[in-house]
Amino acid sequence: MSESAKKPWMKWGSRLLTLFFILLMPVLLYLVARNLDWNEVKKSLQAFSFTTLLVGGVLAFCSYMVFSIFDLIGRAYTGHHLPARQVLPVAFVCYAFNLNFTTWVGGVALRYRLYKRLGLDTATVTRIISLGILTNWIGYMALAGVVFSLRLVKLPASWSLGVTGLQMIGLLLLVLVGIYLYACGWAEKRTWSWRDHEITLPSLRLALIQIWLGATNWALMASLIFWLLPHGHGTYYPSILGILLISCVAGVITHIPAGLGVLETVFLALLHDQVSQGGLVAALLGYRTLYFLVPLLIAVVTYLILEKRAKTIRKQHKHKVRPEKSEETS
Q1: Which H, E and C letters describe 298-323, residue by residue?
Q2: Which of 33, 96, 261, 275 fits a disulfide with 280 by CB distance 3.0 to 4.6 angstroms?
């Protein structure tokens, strides 16, 4: 079958799968949450101490810093010379917008706008974006591969996939990571052309840094949720990490901004017999606040500052160029 014949099937298949998850998630969330004791949720939220929220904020900040370093890897990969003081704020703003308004808004469109205003060309920005996405997902695959293959996630007995099925998925992910590392370290051909774009493999050293940073970011996200859970909740960190990794796949499929409702549905479905539902919902609400809403507010302010600075830099540049032109014509 030709590629052109496959595309309609793939397109419609993707749309139907997305529609299925979009319809399924609210139904599952309603079924799980209809018997929820919201008074317990309120008490759990009020039980958060200042220290708990402060440590949670530090964990969120560390995760954002790790993610922002993805763009410094992009600088090493592309060879552009923007200083870290310009790269890190751009990466932070884009990550916050990415989480809350999907990848196309924050991860792609906003990056193109901000980086091009700082003087980078389209091809360079494209390579930064591509490497950042790859860093995130290669880190995900490495971490999920270890967690799933070692059976560190405790699943309900009724879950159809089962621990063995999840273990097979984990082993497959580790194989894919191994193939990527082998290609980066020993492939004879390192550059391919695709639709007027050149794809060049990073070095093995850079690939290992990608895996480390990507996995660290996911681990920090799970650490925040684990930290916000009520004391004596009866579950352990690897299980929380595994459930977060599972929930993100459903979030990607549905394309719902911020994965709203998807994360909650998966956690409630898989932890309902291990953690009190009120405490779990409170932890997830705290996670939403510390990891999504607060950084978004900071990112909006940072974005306005970046736009103002870019406008000032352009005015200064024009001011410097005009005298040089007048000297040439005089």
Answers
A1: HHHHHHHHHHHHHHHHHHHHHHHHHH
A2: 275
Q: How far is CA 164 from CA 145, 171, 181, 190, 249, in A?
A: 13, 11, 26, 36, 18
Total domains in the fold of the chain? 1
Residue 194: C-alpha distances to residues 11, 200, 228, 232, 245 (Å): 20, 11, 45, 53, 30
For residue 199, the tally of other CB atoms under 10 A from its CB is: 11
Axis crossing angle, helix 204-228 with helix 277-288, rounded to the nearest 10: 130
* φ, ψ (nearest 5 deg) of residue 199: -110, 115
What are the pLDDT digits (tens) for 164-177?
Answer: 888 999 999 999 99
Q: Are 48 and 284 in contact (CB under 8 A)?
A: no
**Cα angle: 132, vertex 138, 139; to 5 degrees:** 90
Q: CB of 295 within 8 A of CB of 62?
A: no
Q: Is the pTM of this model over 0.85?
A: no
3-state SS class at 132: helix
